[in-house]
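Support request from a user on the community tier.

User writes: "When I paste my structure tokens into the form, the page sometimes reloads and wipes my input. The last time it worked, I copied everything first. Here is what I submitted, just in case something in the input itself triggers the reload:"
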């Protein structure tokens, strides 16, 4: 009887140890970023710009409901949401591209006459949150922006 109990204890220990080994490897930045719908929740700026520290609050409703999606093929889509700012705008703007380089997210926006490039530092990315940082210099002041997104 004791042998059976010891055998059960050993098998249980081995089973639990094997289960721990089957844990998934952490996802890469690319895996966390792509194919999710990202909703903007804040645009923080430091120092305050025109007295505001969260520029998201100053956006009009048609800008607040936009949905951002990074596709595996390198396209970056902006779904204009339920409230489109311009009636004749397409529902989905896919004239943008993106790529990862080190801890940077580089976005290219084709506006017809030129291609704009923004390079964001990925401050945080996990299953639910994406925080992108970028700095701009206006006059003598350098402003640090932090764009916060979440999935739903």
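"...and here is what came back when it finally went through:"
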């Amino acid at each position: 009887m004791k042998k059976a109990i010891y055998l059960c204890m050993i098998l249980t220990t081995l089973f639990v140890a094997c289960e721990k080994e089957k844990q998934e490897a952490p996802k890469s930045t690319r895996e966390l970023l792509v194919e999710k719908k990202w909703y903007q929740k804040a645009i923080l700026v430091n120092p305050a710009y025109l007295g505001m520290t969260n520029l998201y609050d100053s956006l009009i409703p048609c800008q607040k409901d936009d949905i951002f999606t990074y596709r595996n093929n390198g396209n970056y889509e902006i779904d204009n949401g339920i409230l489109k700012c311009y009636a004749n705008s397409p529902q989905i703007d896919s004239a943008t591209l993106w790529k990862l380089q080190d801890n940077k997210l580089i976005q290219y926006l084709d506006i017809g006459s030129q291609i704009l490039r923004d390079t964001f530092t990925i401050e945080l990315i996990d299953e639910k949150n994406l925080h992108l940082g970028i700095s701009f210099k206006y006059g003598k002041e350098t402003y640090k922006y932090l764009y916060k997104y979440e999935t739903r």
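Agent notes: The reload is a front-end session timeout and is unrelated to the input. The longest strand covers residues 38-49. The CA atoms of residues 1 and 7 lie 10 Å apart. Escalated to web team.
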